[in-house]
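Homework help board

Subject: predicted structure for assignment chain

Our instructor gave us this sequence and asked us to write out the predicted structure in token form, then describe one feature. I got the tokens but I'm not sure how to describe them. Can anyone check?
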Amino acid sequence: MPEIKRRTPTGAAVLRQDLTDSIVEAVLDELAEKGYQSLSMDAVARRAGVGKSALYRRWPSKLEMTVSTFAALGVPLAAVPDTGSFRGDLRATLDAVLEWVGHPRIGPIFTDLLGIARTNEALARALTDDIAAPRRALGMEVLDRAVARGEVPADIDRELALDVFAAPVFWRLHARREPVTSEYLDQVADLMVKAFT
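My token output:
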């Protein structure tokens, strides 16, 4: 029996990556300028120079579009390579947190989404499931490596440790509005090592 050659899909079956990239930039620009509450599929489509159908082929709603776009940026930033020590991994983790919450466009969008999520259960759940959980899973790898090296006790309170990894940077930057310097991150890393080892 002859082999059936499959035709490469065309048209609506193919999502062009360059078009998706343009839409993602438009989503981020709209979020940065207007915030989540004022974000609309119409405005994103206009800014990206596409029809709304191009958006709906990728995401079923404004919520899915926002969280998917944001997760694609934020989750990879949480990956920390093995530096060979708990202190080194902690310091790299703090750098990764700062890159995320300190980014001039991403940081303000994130704080806006967090504020709205206090009263928007669907957004809160999506942020937890699609952004917080994957980022925390990557942070868990830092703790797993430290336990395997014998640097921290196996019964360390992992959830508390992960909260502490991100909290000082976020609080200093967005609540106190103070600069986060390299020296500050060194001090935080040293304090965490003392607290958890």
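Reply (TA_rk): Your tokens look well-formed. For the description, you could write something like this. The two ends are 66 Å apart (CA to CA). That's the kind of observation they're looking for.
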